[in-house]
Amino acid sequence: MLAGCGSPENTLTEPVPSRAPSTTPSAAPSASPSASRSQQSGPAARKAPTMAPGPAGRTPVFTRAAAGGPGGKVVALTFDADMTADQGTRAAAGEHFDNPRLIALLRRLKVPSTVFMTGRWAEEYPTQARSIGTDPLFEIANHSYSHYAFTTPCYGLPVLDRAGMRGEVERAFAAFRKAGARNVVPYFRFPGGCYDDTSLRALAPAKVTAVQWDVVSGDAFATDADAVAAQVLDGVRPGSLVVMHCTRSAAPVTEEAVRQVVPELRRRGYRFVKVSDLMRE
Fold this sequence. Notes:
By secondary structure, the protein is of the alpha/beta class. 31% of the residues lie in helices and 15% in strands. The chain has 10 helices and 11 strands. The strands form 2 sheets. Strands 3, 4, 5, 6, 7, 8, 9, 10 and 11 form a 9-stranded parallel beta sheet that branches. Helix 8 (225-235) runs parallel beside helix 9. The longest helix is centred in the middle third of the chain and has 18 residues, at 162-179.
């Protein structure tokens, strides 16, 4: 299951946590030195902007760039490389949680992208994690180690206790370093997009910026690439941040949808950027 991204019976929508603050940035991005050096490696990470902490030091949350910014019609495509800590047996049995053809397509189309990767995914596919994380076209952001939930309810995911939340983030960064990824940025995406005040407080010492989205692609468990492409094209606005997936077994039509989305958005005058560049707009 592509847990936290909906299920075949549950259309993917961004959860609206009852205690979460607004996802509209309340402060301008600050330079990335505020993030721990241990979470950054490579030139992309050193230059990545982060947002100032929220009230009482809470982890800040970024959803999209302000429309009409100096960058004009820009959009960020992001891809979640999901794998939960307990899916190793399924991978050993032949299930594919990667999508190398999608990454190859993004390279051919020259689409800068941000991949939100779980530490478990990097452990399962270290060669691919290193390839993505050393290609200047991409940047790797943190999607936790285990893809367990940081609050509940969250699509039936196992739930972390507060004491384990920061460790999940640090363990994922360690997995990226072990794989040899260098273009790692201090951004974090909550599994399923599920968070609350407790999780924002718990992650504050990690000094990451949480990254959500404003356009849901609907590619999780989708079988109709045309429908996924149409949903993205209908939702994108200047400054949008799109959530898609880099997981073959649970998002099998993403590659074909991207084949449609990229040329059409370019025809409309859009320029593709990574999240770190979107935050600068």
